[in-house]
Each structure stands twice: as C-alpha cells, then as structure tokens.
Specification:
59 residues, 2 strands, two-stranded antiparallel sheet, 29% strand
C-alpha cells in the first residue's frame, strides 16, 4: 500500500533503513506501554523522482 502510494507520486525507493527503539522504556517490562514500544520500528525511506516521471517533466 505504501509502496503503491510512493509509485503513484512518481517516486522510486532508493533504500530503507529500519531501527528498533534503544530507549529504556522499550525494555522496561513494568511500563504499561512496554509491549507496544518493544515492537515499534522507525523507518527512514530514501526516495528519488522516478525516471519516467523525470523524463515526462522535461517535456
């Protein structure tokens, strides 16, 4: 779904970097949000204009 939206926007994915939480609350089993925090993933998406979109904009 996300990749489809990226493609519809005329973009390509160059790379994706994922990381898990390193803060103390993610590993604190007594924290009420521990289960959710321990599963969260933050992603950095590197995008560029798709080659087909770039060529059509040049016209």
């Amino acid at each position: 779904m996300l990749l489809d939206a990226i493609a519809r926007a005329g973009l390509d994915v160059i790379s994706r970097l994922d990381t898990t939480p390193a803060h103390g609350r993610a590993s604190d089993a007594t924290d009420v949000l521990h289960a959710a925090r321990s599963r969260e993933v933050t992603s950095l998406w590197r995008l560029r204009v798709a080659a087909t979109a770039a060529s059509s904009e040049a016209c």
